[in-house]
Specification:
The complex is a heterodimer of chains A (222) and B (307). With 222 residues, chain A is of the alpha/beta class. Chain A is 28% helix and 23% strand. The radius of gyration of chain B is 19 Å and the shape is globular. The two termini of chain B are 13 Å apart. Classes of the chains: A alpha/beta (222), B alpha/beta (307). At the A-B interface, loops of A face helix 5 and helix 6 of B.
Chain lengths: 222, 307
């Protein structure tokens, strides 16, 4: 899933303070799972903002909505009839949702309510960690299903570096060395011989380096 | 001979090679580079020039190398893959060779979080093993990484680092084997204080026959004080300073600790001289560069061979 973190409320207040009526729009997908932008967080943010503006003697009307997804036309269409009455929207979806809503509703300012962080997993309740950087050319078959691009601080394809200590990364004792994980798993799979092979120089053109990416599937197009 | 490198010739002739290093200044101060390099004249065969070491901005390794080359000394261009992509690195290699620089050391580099710009983007278009492959391809095939032909390809004597003390220990020799496969010519090791552990690594290297394929220069750093020994033991990742060495340093009065450090370093060199697979020494005297000539002399490594 896409993992996001709530923005500090002060930052949101700064963006919306001059409006009179705003909509806070949550998303029922990833940001709900990582507890940053689902229905619950929409409610909490709306209450906190109402309280702030009341305490500061300012009239501000704040409504709430949570869409099934903000990265699909069909769900964004659900608010077409009501969105016109607002001065602005604070979207608690990831950056994808914020942008897609802005593309659809061109005359209304849409503000991000979260910082979109990474593609990752829920390691345990309240702890999310990165697993993928979407490089566009998956190499997991060569690295015991552990991604050094997203999990090694230097994205080394032939690690570990000299800073690996007791299984931890040199940049933090709380961070596993991705290459130690790869080696441990290769051992478990009885495939340590694979470690002796050099991983080839990567073609980064399928990553961000190649420009904004697009997938077109003629077979599923309407 | 793969290159015109003096270092390659010295190693090929079977001499013990001696290298040291020069960290470029944090300012546009050519005199500082020349001073540090001049101090080493006649005592070492080549001088490593670090590339934004510990991720702190300094004068570029390439320009400091050119200054050193202009003095008639032989620099080793250190290059980390942290700061530049494959275009920038290959163009710097062409530039270096155009100035007569023919030694390189390929590294991944410390993470920016350790340096003076922790907010910087890091590049890592290549890793150190891939940089070795690129430099070798430029030299042996006369082609850029992208495949195009190079006019007058740069002939670099290719070095890399090895840390026999980093984890996981059982894979350190395999890791060196990968660098050899990538095409490395010489290796400079992490500073050696734990000779037993280093010996175990070296034995495995020799059993795999890697010592026949790559020249290993043992990394030597004199301890200046008990405090430094302690710091290296506890604070530097991938460094192995045995407790008895810290005790030995602490056991002498403070004013004699520097001498004790030099003594330890000379004993280490003496022990390593006879170890199978050792082809020379890389002496890194951190903030103590002026001691290198004395160490080389007292270790019986003078005069440096003329080849």
């Amino acid at each position: 899933m896409i993992v996001a973190e709530k923005k500090p409320i002060e930052e949101i207040i700064e963006e919306i303070k001059d409006y009179k009526k705003i909509l806070i729009a949550g998303c029922n997908e990833c940001v709900t799972v990582c507890e940053a932008g689902g229905k619950k967080e929409v409610g909490v943010l709306a209450s906190a903002l109402r309280m702030y503006f009341i305490n500061n003697g300012k009239k501000m009307e704040i409504d709430e909505v949570t869409l099934e997804r903000q990265c699909d036309h069909e769900y964004l269409e659900e608010i077409r009839n009501q969105i016109g009455q607002y001065d602005a929207v604070v979207s608690l979806a990831c950056g994808v949702g914020v942008q897609f809503m802005a593309e659809k509703y061109r005359r209304i300012p849409i503000y991000p309510g979260v910082n979109t962080s990474f593609m990752g997993v829920t390691e345990e309740r309240g702890v999310w960690t990165e697993r993928c950087q979407g490089c566009g050319q998956c190499i997991l078959a060569r690295t015991a299903s552990i991604c050094p691009i997203s999990r090694c601080a230097k994205r080394l394809l032939n690690g570990p570096c000299g800073g690996s200590t007791n299984g931890k990364c040199e940049i933090s004792k709380d961070l596993d060395c991705a290459w130690q994980l790869i080696i441990d798993r290769l051992k478990e799979l009885n495939r340590l011989d694979d470690y002796e092979k050099l991983l080839p120089i990567k073609d980064w053109s399928t990553e961000r380096a190649g420009g904004p990416r697009k997938v077109v599937r003629e077979d599923v197009r309407l | 001979m793969k290159t015109e490198s003096v270092l390659e010739k010295i190693l090929a002739a079977g001499h013990l090679a001696v290298t040291s290093e020069c960290g470029p200044p944090r300012g546009a101060l050519p005199e500082k580079v020349k001073e540090k390099a001049e101090m080493l004249r006649g005592y070492v065969d080549a001088i490593n020039v670090t590339d934004n070491q510990t991720a702190v901005v300094r004068m570029s390794s390439l320009s400091a190398c050119i200054l050193i080359k202009q003095l008639g000394l032989d620099p080793i261009l250190q290059m980390v893959t942290r700061d530049r992509n494959r275009l920038a690195m290959q163009s710097d290699i062409l530039g270096a060779y155009a100035h007569g620089i023919n030694n390189m050391l390929c590294l991944s580099g410390d993470h920016p979080c350790f340096g003076d710009h922790p907010m910087a983007a890091n590049v890592y278009d290549l890793d150190s093993m891939q940089l070795i492959q690129v430099v070798r391809k430029m030299r042996d095939e006369g082609r850029f990484q992208g495949g195009d032909e190079i006019e007058n390809p740069p002939k670099m004597f290719i070095g890399a680092a090895a840390n026999p003390f980093a984890d996981p220990f059982e894979l350190r020799a395999i890791r060196l084997a990968k660098k050899v496969k990538a095409g490395v010519d010489f290796i400079q090791t992490q500073c050696i204080y734990n000779i037993d552990k280093f010996g175990k690594w070296m034995k495995e290297i020799c059993e795999r026959g890697l010592n026949e394929k790559v020249s290993i220069l043992a990394g030597i750093t004199p301890l200046k004080s008990a405090g430094m020994a302690n710091y290296m033991r506890n604070k530097v990742p991938g460094m192995d300073v045995p407790e008895e060495l810290v005790k030995r340093m602490a056991g002498v009065p403070k004013k004699d600790q520097a001498d004790e450090g030099i003594k330890i370093c000379l004993e280490t060199i003496e022990q390593l001289k006879t170890m199978e697979g050792i082809r020379g020494f890389h002496i890194m005297a951190i903030e103590w560069e002026q001691k290198v000539p004395e160490i080389v002399e007292r270790a019986g490594l003078l005069p440096r061979p003329q080849v």
